[in-house]
Amino acid sequence: MNASISTDTQASGRRVVITGLGVITSIGIGVEAFTGGLRDGRSGVKPITAFDTTGFAHANGCEVTDFEPERWIVRQHPEELGRASQFSVAAARMAVEDAGLTEEDVRARRSLVSVGTTDGESRDLDQLVGMSIDGGPEEYDPTVARRVPAGRLSAGIVRELGLTDVEAVTIPTACAAGNYAVGYGYDALRSGDVDIALCGGADAACRKTFTGFYRLGTVAPEVCRPFDKDREGILTGEGAGILLMESLESALARGARIYAEVLGYGLACDALHPVAPDQGSIARTIEIAHRNAGVTPDQVDFVSAHGTGTKANDITEAGAIRQVFGEDAMPRTVSIKSMIGHSMGAASAVSAAACALAITEGFIPPTINHRETDPECAVDCVPNEAVEAELTIVQNNALAFGGNNAVLILGAFRDHRSAA
């Protein structure tokens, strides 16, 4: 689809573009590997090793097994950071390098670091609880205890890059936190408050979250198959996605490669139920995002769905998309969680990176493990194999416990469009 994009909603502020990506996932670390994983429909599923899974009937997940923190974390000792913070710091450095910038370039500008998370450093909390049970609080490892504050996910980036003129925030809106963080950065850039924003999400696999989903009966025994009639639930994952964003004027002035333009986003917190999604609230969030981005439903080329693979999520989310787009105009709706699992606060940030890459590379990622679409979902989920497509506008959904929903709209940047 080659629809034009309205700039009416952008007239009062600067246009914002994505010029750097840092991704750490179970199907690839870095832009090239991650893009290859998306195109190939690679699966990151493997038995969980992050903690002892004795007593669980099944324990597959999507862990990152080839991450070398010392390759990316050079200004501080990696062991001073918890695993989630290691992910966020490494992904931020990747994004800076991918954008063609140096540390000095970023330090010279007013900057924002905004990182979303579900668990913070709960993996370290798990370890501390175990120490306490075994020998009491006096057995706590001081190094592990110092790593616990979730603020380190953003503060670690500030320290690693040596930033001084910077705001650093960690956003804890559960599984929608990545989109929240990107939206926060978009607002700061658009208003001119900052010149560079490093935004996204990070989380590490931990016993607490796996056990919580397991006790809810939502962990799949083997694989995640969103929108499939035989889907059995989620697989927990881990990783990070950090987007480097700047104004369009800045990107053009330095001749940067532009992955995509951030057109707008929508947020809604319905607070109707601790865990159950609400169709009306999701639909409203989509409508708010479209309005703020200045787009109409018919312009959206595909939806990167939250798509967890649970019975309730997929039916409710598909219903909300149908409510907004209409029964006969549903865009292709995919879930990359079929490949990388549910990486919690990192999920929508990684999906945002996938959307930006899809726009740049001209393809729609597949929903793998698919056998037969659930008639109650009735979406074209691009089963099992990626498809080539020229994309103009892409929608990225994120839904979270407590009704914290966030929808991000990205658009292709065309050279012929004015920077004004």
Report on this model:
This protein has 420 residues and is α/β, with parallel strands linked by helices. It has helices at residues 31-40, 69-72, 83-98, 103-107, 122-135, 142-146, 152-161, 177-190, 207-215, 248-253, 279-293, 311-325, 337-340, 347-361; strands spanning 16-25, 28-29, 46-47, 60-61, 111-116, 166-171, 196-203, 239-247, 260-269, 302-304, 332-334, 363-364, 387-388, 393-400, 404-411. The strands form three sheets. Strands 1, 2, 5, 6, 7, 8, 9, 10, 11, 14 and 15 form an eleven-stranded mixed β-sheet that branches. A two-stranded antiparallel sheet has the order 3-4. Strands 12-13 form a two-stranded antiparallel sheet. The longest helix is centred in the first third of the chain and has 16 residues, at 83-98. It is globular, with a radius of gyration of 20 Å. The two termini are 23 Å apart. Residues 1-10 and 416-420 have low confidence and may be disordered.
